[in-house]
Structure formats: C-alpha cells, structure tokens
C-alpha cells in the first residue's frame, strides 16, 4: 500500500454515519493529545491530512481516510480523557467506541497510540480489554519517543512489552516519533499486514 496516497473520505459524528462496513480498516485510538492524528500524518507523509493541535480534544469526530487500494481505510478516532467534555459526552463516547469496536466487520486492527511518557492509562487498559473481548489485534505505538533519551525509550519499550506479555492479540509494540519520523516503516508494515490479509 502506498500510504502517501491517503485522502480524506468523511467525518462521522457517530458510528451510524460511518462508511459502509465493507473492505478493511485500521483505527488509531488513544488518549487526547497522545499523537494519533500526527502519527497518521507521519505514516501518510502528509502533514495536512489529519488535523493536529497542541490543545487536547482536537479530533471530535471519527475521521476516515481512503488509501490507494480500494476498500482500505485508516480511521482517526477522537481521543479519550479530554477533561473539558462533560460526563454525559464521555459516557456516550464510550458507548460509541465499544459499539464501533464490536460491530465493525471491516475493522482489522487497532493502533493504540500512547505518549511514551504517560503509557498505560486507565483508558489504555480499557482499550486493551475491549480489543481482547472483540478479538481485535492491537499494535502499540509509543509516540513522542523523541522526548526521551534513546536509552530511556528502549527501557520503556522493554517495560511495556513485559507488562503486556499476557495480552492476547498484541501484535507489536514500536517506538515512534512524528517529529523525527522514526518507527514509520514498522508501523506501515503492521498496517500492510492487517489491511492486505
Ligand atoms: P486529539 O485529537 O486531541 O485526541 O489528539 P491527538 O492524539 O490526535 O494528538 P495530535 O496528533 O493532535 O498531537 C498533539 C500534540 O503533540 C501536537 O502539538 C503535536 O505536534 C505533538 N506531537 C505529536 N506527535 C509527536 C511526536 O512524535 N513528537 C513530538 N515532540 N511531538 C508530537
Ligand atoms: Mg487527533
């Protein structure tokens, strides 16, 4: 797949408005501000594809991007843990997300994006549990790896792998940096495996 050819398809406020559930897609999930949209832009080599922001809560809709292989899509999910949204909105979001993960036939894998400095939040753990319950393979991107010294980043990688060694369906854990554009080939290989199977 040539990720550089990704194009914006549509934004869905709820899973009801998602594109027809056929083909293959991979969704990017994670806490607000973890770097999901930036990771999509880095993987697709297009800094203008998904909107990013210093302010958490930038992505509030489910955004779909098409790839050059017909029926293949990337999905940018709203972040979790954005303090300013109300409790009702949070509960609604959880329901939507749970529904999306369970119901979506075309969803072949989940990329869980975690800021390497704040890994395994309660939300991340919940995502891992949902994925396991839905038998959905997960790949973890430890983003903002550029914020740590290389040795510290490697230690964190090893720690996460060891903490999650019993998680079924964990496909890979990789160091990633949108700033330095590192880990990109590993991430693309994982996406290829899921989208082309
Ligand atoms: P929401 O849409 O709010 O859930 O956030 P998001 O997970 O999509 O995060 P986004 O990609 O918008 O990035 C949040 C902030 O982190 C932005 O200021 C980015 O420039 C910064 N950022 C993202 N990835 C990296 C990275 O790898 N390294 C560094 N240094 N900064 C990053
Ligand atoms: Mg975003």
TrEMBL record:
Sorted UniProt keywords: Cell cycle, Cell division, GTP-binding, Magnesium, Metal-binding, Nucleotide-binding, Septation
InterPro entries noted in UniProt: G_ENGB_dom, GTP-bd, GTP-bd_ribosome_bio_YsxC, P-loop_NTPase
Name of this chain's protein: Probable GTP-binding protein EngB
Cofactor(s) the protein needs: Mg(2+)
UniProt domain EngB-type G: residue ranges: 22-197
Listed Gene3D superfamilies: P-loop containing nucleotide triphosphate hydrolases
Family: Belongs to the TRAFAC class TrmE-Era-EngA-EngB-Septin-like GTPase superfamily. EngB GTPase family.
Leader sequence residues: none
Record function comment: Necessary for normal cell division and for the maintenance of normal septation.
